[in-house]
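User: I've been trying to design a sequence by hand for this structure and keep getting stuck. Would you show me what you'd pick, starting by listing the structure so we're on the same page?

Assistant: Good idea, let's start from the same input. This is the structure you sent:
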């Protein structure tokens, strides 16, 4: 196959930084990424399981793994020296377990391997069902609200609830809390964001 000059550059160049491959649909982006990896494995003695290849979807990861496997197989068929045949055969075996995966799946693998450092139960489970997430959130909020009402000696929590209620419902505060939760969780440090958010409402404490 004859690469275009841009493809050639993206495959063979080894700049110290990053390479951005941007081209229209079906124009050979995945080909470039696959051949870049094959070039590293073939010409630089790198093992395929030393690389982390991240895709957006599971389907793309599967495609990438299959394309790497078939490229490795055709390189193996072309290889003449005993050393490179041995190296390529090892890669063909390793491609099945190489980290060619989505970011989510890779993170899950890391957590499963290092749960003891993170202080997490090894039987952890990923909460991915949106209905379950919502139910759990509501349960937690119900408990928190009950506690806050129980301790509400100065009536401040009742006032807060009242402040966000209207004549039809008193879900106003619930909506605000859930919105704050959503906002906080897209930040790197949600607790810090929540603490800082309160500072906007401190009046007359400048400097
Ligand atoms: N320089 C080239 N000469 C001939 N065929 C090529 C060349 N580059 C890529 N191809 C072939 O074109 C087809 C599409 O390439 P590829 O899947 O890499 O495109 P893509 O940009 O990743 O597409 P998509 O946007 O759908 O992800 C593949 O069969 C690939 O082997
Ligand atoms: Mg592609």
């Amino acid at each position: 196959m004859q690469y275009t000059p841009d493809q050639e550059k993206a495959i063979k160049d080894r700049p110290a930084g990053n390479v951005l491959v941007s081209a229209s649909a079906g124009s050979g982006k995945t080909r470039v990424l696959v051949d870049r990896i094959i070039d590293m494995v073939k010409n630089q003695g790198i093992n395929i399981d030393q690389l982390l290849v991240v895709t957006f979807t599971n389907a793309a990861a599967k495609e990438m793994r299959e394309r790497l496997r078939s490229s490795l197989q055709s390189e193996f068929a072309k290889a003449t020296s005993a050393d490179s045949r041995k190296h390529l055969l090892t890669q063909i075996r390793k491609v099945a377990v190489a980290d060619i995966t989505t970011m989510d799946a890779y993170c899950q693998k890391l957590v499963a391997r290092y749960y003891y450092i993170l202080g997490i139960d090894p039987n952890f489970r990923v909460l991915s069902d949106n209905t379950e997430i919502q139910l759990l959130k509501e349960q937690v909020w119900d408990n928190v609200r009950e506690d806050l009402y129980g301790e509400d000696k100065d009536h401040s929590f009742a006032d807060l609830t009242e402040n966000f209620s209207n004549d039809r419902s008193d879900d106003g505060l619930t909506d605000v809390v859930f919105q704050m939760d959503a906002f906080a969780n897209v930040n790197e440090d949600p607790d810090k964001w929540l603490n800082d958010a309160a500072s906007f409402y401190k009046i007359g404490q400048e400097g």
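That's my pick for every position. To get oriented when you compare it with your attempt: The chain has a mean pLDDT of 92. Residues 1-4, 7, 23, 25-31 surround adenosine-5'-triphosphate (ligand 1) (CB under 6 Å).
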